[in-house]
Design brief:
About 30% of the residues lie in helices and about 30% in strands. With about 700 residues, it is an alpha+beta fold. Among the domains are: about 350 residues, YVTN repeat-like/Quinoprotein amine dehydrogenase (Methylamine Dehydrogenase, Chain H, 7 Propeller); about 60 residues, no CATH class. It has a 5-stranded antiparallel β-sheet with strand order 1-2-29-28-27, with no helix packed on it. The protein has a 4-stranded antiparallel β-sheet with strand order 3-4-5-6, with no helix packed on it. It has a 4-stranded antiparallel β-sheet with strand order 7-8-9-10, with no helix packed on it. It is extended, with a radius of gyration of 48 Å.
């Protein structure tokens, strides 16, 4: 049971508490209830007081014994018996229910207005009759003296269906284009309807004439409210014979006296959401108004907030159990919420034990209860070393991860990193010590990282401050105090590497200045070690001395640059010698290379040549091909250039061409020899 308090009004949420996962079997749920004391002690006021997906409307019968709720999916109605604290029956419907009304004292006569323009009547045994209205309906009310049903919806007409005669009567013609809600006064049976234009029309059912018109849209706009569009009427409720509460689509509730066209009170929810439900609590003169996010209870005379509730899920409907402090809500979740507020009234007769429970809870407040399952992803399992449990009964797949027992999770985490708590504790102690040190009066000290750079910046800031004082300019912010460059003087990864080549080549240019800074750093470190204050810097020398020093520095800089270059060359030679020694010591192993199809291996030099050619630029390759004769570049008459290529032939093609040449030469020689023999034979015949 969850307890909340606002304005010293305690609200007990009877449906909140420890809920078991839906994927657990009934057998496991029963086993958990036997083992776990917290689950066994949870309050389940009405057994299975829920819908499969969403509940849209909830009402209580006039005798107070039955609670009826409609929801989805599939569209259905469920009836709960309060005397048995369980479900009485469940009936599935053909289409979703917009709203419904209990005509009898019990559940024997019910009317459902459905989405597809259908009006369905149910009796005690089940479905009784079904009819249709001409336009889509949004709300209806029952007029008891004449047994008429008044339907309002996406039409300017109000349809009347007489249940005694079993036929439609002449409809009421209104000025509105559409109507959203309607209600009938329980005292003098005045019929009122709220329109999409933000007006309320009141009709007398006896004469079937309009007797009044209220412009609520204009009255809801005040100096404090911000409205984007035209407010329409979304909720309507009569309070006695003379009062009426109206809710708008922009989140305002207006309380009217029927004898006046001006509202008595305008209450804004400040959420900009349409008012879903309005209930009247007569014992304390409270109005309970609800939008999809919050339920507010406020005094109808002063408008002062009594208390409010913000459920976890969006609200669709609110029902106040008569003559008690119990409140029920239908919301965008399977579970329907039940709240008990002792200040509003006593508990109903069928759950009178709630008064004793609340008294005990006030004496002994309940501790917070946590779930026994931990949701982990596949990456978390790999970090914990539990990836091998995927597919076992210890892990239950859910969405993009798994559910596992919280005790197993803690054990695995301790085994994966047993010193995590010690490290966390040390870090917290270190942070506390640093916080206490920061509260003391501290001297200006140089940072731990990049001390020379910080000293350089401090000197430059001092020079800039002197210049700005002379020129009367504003001082620029320092880099040491700037949060963007804070990490540069704290993180050792940003330390300037003085052994790098870039620094060593640039260092001679600032060698004299760096030497001076190093001296200052040594002095500052000595002062810090001794705990003494820093001494003031000595005054500068004269300008002629500085000019002589600058000329000496220029000569020294050149010499230092030469020295640094010589040192770098010597280091490179040493590195080369070390590499050669390593190469000589290493033993070469034979390597095997794969030759592509159609190529003939000659030597490694050919492959080396190919690699050299591939490394060369396109211009160098073209020049080589021109020398070899495979490429010819010439100028055209237009002014552009023309390039002709000769494709290189592979080894197989060359062999084929050589074989063809030999074959041709052999055939030519054979032909010549044959022609020579023929000519000799002819000559011999002539001689004979």
């Amino acid at each position: 049971m969850q307890v909340s308090s606002l304005n010293e009004v305690k609200i007990y949420s009877l449906s909140a508490g420890r809920s078991l996962p839906e994927w657990l079997s009934d057998r496991k749920k029963r086993a958990l209830q036997k083992k776990d004391v917290d689950i066994r002690r949870r309050i389940e006021l009405i057994q299975d007081f829920e819908m499969p997906t969403v509940s849209t409307k909830i009402k209580v019968s006039r005798d107070g014994q039955y609670i009826m709720a409609v929801g989805t999916y599939k569209p259905r109605v469920r009836c709960f018996d309060t005397y048995q604290l369980s479900q009485k029956f469940e009936r599935c419907l053909d289409s979703e229910v917009v709203t419904f009304e209990i005509l009898s004292d019990d559940y024997s006569k019910i009317v459902f207005l459905q989405c597809g323009r259908f009006v369905e009547f149910h009796s005690q045994h089940g479905h009784y009759y079904r009819t249709r209205i001409p336009k889509f309906g949004r709300d209806f009310s029952y007029h008891y003296p004449s047994c008429d049903l008044y339907f309002v919806g996406a039409s300017s007409e109000v349809y009347r269906l007489n249940l005694e005669q079993g036929r439609f009567l002449n409809s009421l013609q209104t000025e509105a284009s559409e109507s959203n809600v309607c209600d009938i006064n329980p005292v003098h049976f005045l019929f009122a309807m709220g329109t999409a234009e933000g007006k309320v029309e009141c009709w007398d059912p006896r004469t079937r004439n309009r007797v009044g018109l209220l412009d609520c849209a204009l009255s809801s706009v005040t100096a404090d409210t911000e409205i984007e569009g035209l407010p329409s009427i979304s909720a309507l409720k009569f309070d006695g014979a003379l009062n009426m509460a109206v809710g708008t689509s922009t989140g305002q509730v207006l309380l009217y006296d029927l004898r006046s066209s001006n509202p008595l009170i305008v209450k804004d929810h400040h959420y900009g959401l349409p008012i879903k439900s309005i209930q009247i609590q007569h014992q304390l003169d409270l109005i309970i108004s609800a939008d999809s996010r919050i339920i507010k209870m406020w005094n109808k005379d002063t408008g002062k907030i009594f208390t409010s509730m913000e459920p976890e899920h969006d609200i669709n409907d609110v029902c106040l159990y008569p003559n008690s402090g119990m409140l029920m809500t239908a919301n965008e979740a399977p579970k329907m919420n039940i709240y008990y507020i002792p200040v509003l009234g006593p508990a109903p007769k069928w759950c009178s034990f709630l008064d004793n429970l609340t008294e005990e809870l006030e004496e002994n407040p309940e501790s917070t209860v946590y779930d026994d399952y931990k949701f982990v992803t596949r990456k978390d399992l790999e970090n914990l070393g539990l990836a091998h449990l995927i597919g076992s009964s210890l892990l239950r797949a859910y969405m993009h991860g798994f559910f596992m027992d919280i005790r197993l999770y803690h054990k695995a985490k301790m085994m994966a990193n047993p010193f995590a708590y010690e490290e966390y504790r040390r870090e917290k102690i270190r942070q506390k010590i640093e916080e206490t040190r920061a509260q003391r009066v501290q001297l200006k000290k140089l940072p731990k990282v990049n001390k020379e750079l910080a000293l350089k910046l401090i000197e430059e800031e001092g020079e800039e401050q002197q210049i700005s004082k002379k020129r009367k300019q504003k001082n620029l912010p320092s880099l040491l105090k700037d949060d963007r460059f804070k990490v540069m003087f704290e993180n050792p990864d940003f330390q300037v590497d003085e052994q790098s080549e870039e620094f060593r080549l640039l260092n001679p240019l600032v060698s004299k200045i760096s030497e001076k800074r190093k001296r200052k750093l040594k002095i500052l470190e000595e002062l810090e070690a001794q705990g003494q204050e820093e001494e003031e810097e000595p005054e500068g020398k004269a300008s002629d001395a500085e000019s002589s020093e600058s000329s000496d520095d220029e000569k020294g800089w050149v010499e230092e640059v030469r020295k640094q270059r010589k040192l770098l060359r010597q280091e490179e030679k040493l590195k080369r010698q070390e590499r050669l020694k390593e190469d000589q010591q290493t033993l070469l192993k034979p390597q095997f290379f794969e030759i592509k199809e159609g190529e003939e291996f000659r030597s490694f030099k050919d492959s080396a040549k190919k690699q050299k050619l591939m490394k060369k630029t396109l211009e160098d390759r073209l020049k080589l091909e021109e020398k070899l004769g495979t490429l010819n570049v010439s100028d055209t008459t237009v002014g552009s250039k023309q390039a002709t290529f000769k494709l290189k032939k592979s080894e197989q093609q060359r062999k084929q061409q050589e074989a063809e040449k030999r074959h041709r030469q052999e055939r030519k020689s054979l032909r010549r020899s044959a022609s020579h023999l023929k000519s000799r034979r002819g000559r011999g015949r002539l001689f004979h």
